[in-house]
Amino acid sequence: MLWGVYSFFCIFVLRLLFKKKNMFEKELQKFKEIQEHLKNEYPNGGYVVIKGDEVLGVWFNRLDALKEGLAKYGNVPFLVKEIRENLDDISNVINFSRDIQFA
Questions:
Q1: What pTM value is reported for the model?
Q2: Which of 1, 7, 21, 35 is most enclosed, with most CB atoms within 10 A?
């Protein structure tokens, strides 16, 4: 019985990870296209907000980028990515719930 629950949980988690990976496919492609340009334009780094093919802008901290993304797009998924981030490195993934409260 316990093995069946564990197997179900593992399959559920893998499906969630697969969906999330594909969720921002368009945004990640746009980021790849403009990353070198952004690195040159913002040598000190920053966080870019992307929704679909639209680049909202660059901010110097993640919280400001999140606030502006929420103000522009509302409570829908959008990408906030560090400009100097290596796309192959998954160690710095940050997840937020949909009920973000800003003081």
A1: 0.67
A2: 35
